């Protein structure tokens, strides 16, 4: 199984009520790449997936698979596999029946169907589950059956719509890892929609962050997190501390609670950092404030520190120290982790 390049050229999609779901989208997804489409409800991510699938047709623009224009081809002629949030399995068929359903419709011989089914059951870790009814399966097992069914006809493209959203947190974490390994093994071009930033970070070779039907940023997970394009991306992906600048000093920036070291160019009005970039110090630091809350999160603790700004600072600490509410907290930050953002 090998992937194919997907290209959307100037695709626009509006609905009957006048709402524009996707604005003039230009997007290239490389063969074998896993692209995560991330964003809040109503941002256009599911419509983009449906344009790729052939479930929606763009009002303007074209969709290409490789060099082939598939804009007017329906889903059944695009050679895609789809996995839905609600699985969409047939309750009257057993596991094997669900997996080979599409192959049977295509006229594949029974012996070939059975062989392909056995391969897929092995692939998704359900080797002994072929004769089980769908009602006998857990949520995670049903999702694996849905994935096997989508992969059965060896599609050029795999599309996943919130594939893990219906699962509990622990199972979602495990299947996320398994799905990542499977996609890498298959080398298939995969596009999945999610509102879960952790899922997008873990599975996507690149992440497309969408806002109001437009591309807010398209980049690697690392760049999305460390070099967000604007305040929307930065605040949607991870947590953020904002420091309005009160005064520009010779060696830094005066902000509420102290002075930050600044090595960047220009005279910024606001600088930002992530919670893990603030370090709790024993004595002196760049900032001082009072602890208003501490929350245990396993490997780290989340501290809320009031430095006199509109919002307390978020500090992720791994030192294991339990601080007394109201105590003074000194914080340090390295200048290279501070950044500015476009509005």
UniProtKB/TrEMBL annotation:
* This protein's GO CC annotations: ATP-binding cassette (ABC) transporter complex
Q: InterPro entries, alphabetically? A: AAA+_ATPase, ABC_SmlMolc_Importer, ABC_transporter-like_ATP-bd, ABC_transporter-like_CS, Mo/tungstate-bd_C_term_dom, P-loop_NTPase, Transp-assoc_OB_typ2
Q: Where is the ABC transporter domain?
A: 6-237
Q: Which Pfam families match?
A: ABC_tran, TOBE_2
| Highest taxon listed in the record's lineage | Bacteria
Task: Please give the biological process terms from Gene Ontology that the record holds.
Answer: quaternary ammonium group transport
Gene Ontology MF terms: ATP binding; ATP hydrolysis activity; transmembrane transporter activity
Does the keyword ATP-binding belong to this entry? yes
Q: Which UniProt keywords apply?
A: ATP-binding, Nucleotide-binding, Transport
Q: What is this protein called?
A: ABC transporter ATP-binding protein
Q: Which organism is it from?
A: Pseudomonas bijieensis
């Amino acid at each position: 199984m090998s992937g194919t390049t997907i290209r959307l050229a100037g695709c626009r999609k509006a609905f009957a009520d006048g709402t524009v779901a996707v604005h003039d989208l230009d997007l290239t997804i490389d063969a074998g790449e896993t692209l995560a489409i991330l964003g809040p409800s109503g941002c256009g991510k599911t419509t983009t997936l449906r344009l790729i699938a052939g479930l929606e047709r763009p009002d303007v623009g074209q969709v290409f698979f490789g060099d082939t224009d598939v804009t007017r081809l329906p889903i059944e002629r695009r050679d895609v596999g789809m996995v839905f949030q609600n699985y969409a399995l047939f309750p009257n068929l057993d596991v094997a029946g669900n997996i080979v359903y599409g192959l049977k419709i295509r006229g594949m011989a029974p012996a070939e169907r059975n062989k392909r089914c056995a391969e897929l059951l092995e692939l998704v870790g359900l080797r002994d589950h072929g004769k089980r009814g769908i009602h006998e399966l857990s949520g995670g097992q049903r999702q694996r059956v849905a994935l096997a069914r989508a992969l059965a006809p060896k599609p050029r493209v795999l599309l996943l719509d919130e594939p893990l959203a219906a699962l509990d947190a622990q199972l979602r974490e495990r299947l996320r890892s398994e799905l990542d390994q499977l996609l890498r093994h298959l080398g298939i071009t995969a596009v999945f929609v999610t509102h879960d930033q952790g899922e997008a970070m873990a599975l996507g070779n690149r992440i497309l962050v969408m806002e109001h039907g437009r591309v807010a940023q398209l980049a690697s997970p690392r760049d999305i997190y460390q070099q967000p394009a604007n305040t929307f991306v930065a605040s949607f992906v991870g947590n953020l501390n904002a420091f309005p600048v009160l005064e520009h000093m010779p060696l830094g920036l005066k902000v509420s609670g102290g002075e930050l070291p600044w090595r960047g160019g220009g005279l910024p009005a606001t600088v930002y950092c992530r919670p893990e970039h603030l370090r709790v110090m024993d004595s002196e630091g760049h900032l001082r404030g009072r602890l208003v809350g501490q929350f245990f999160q396993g490997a780290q603790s989340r501290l809320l520190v009031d430095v006199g700004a509109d919002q307390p600072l978020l500090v992720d600490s791994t030192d294991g120290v339990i601080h007394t509410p109201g105590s003074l907290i000194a914080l340090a930050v390295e200048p290279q982790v501070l950044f500015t953002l476009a509005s």
